[in-house]
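User: My collaborator sent over this chain with a note saying "see what the structure looks like." That's all I know about it. Can you take a look?
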Amino acid sequence: MNRRKNIENLREGYHIFKNTYLPQHKELFSKLYQQNQNPSVLVISCSDSRVEPSIIMQCSPGEIFVIRNVANIVPPYEKDGNYHGTSAALEFGVTALNIAHILILGHRKCGGIEKLMTTKYRNNNSMAFLEKWMSIFEDVKREVENDGISMSIEEKILLCEERGIVKSIQNLHTFPWIKERVMQQKLFIHGWLFDIATGEMLEYKADTNRFTAL
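Assistant: Without extra context I'll predict from the sequence alone. Here is the result:
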């Protein structure tokens, strides 16, 4: 793969945007600039380059507030002196933008989940940050190993992709300002799982604890 060509493609893409897309949506961008952003949905998506929330859900600029990280993980609430990028973005979206919906958008073939469920990258000093980040889901891994004792590793990864979304939903409720708004029915939480190969989307149903077709 020609990596120099990749950045050249981005330059070309920008000029297409500037000369074609922008003039066609000049009024929208003028409005977005003049007014504060006012999205109603916050999406927590994986950093995976194959999963682009705005394309998958056909959103225009300004419609969704997006947080991206490896494996679309929501860490538990921790009030300490460390750096918390995902938590900071959540705080801004919920308390400053008054988001009405939070959507955890997971996907099949997730490299982070594969890393968690296999020995890939394990004890690799060059992947220390990744290993620490994925440890948030260690209890999910143990749960999958126990419940899927007769499953193949491929089946366990599929199950873990689903259970990871559920865990992130549970972790959202550990944030006091999220829990309060959910109880007041001012904030609603959703979990979706996108299949890159087929384009199908599954939705988590809390009442049945299952994922069903959207």
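A starting point for your reply to your collaborator: The first helix runs from residue 3 to 24.
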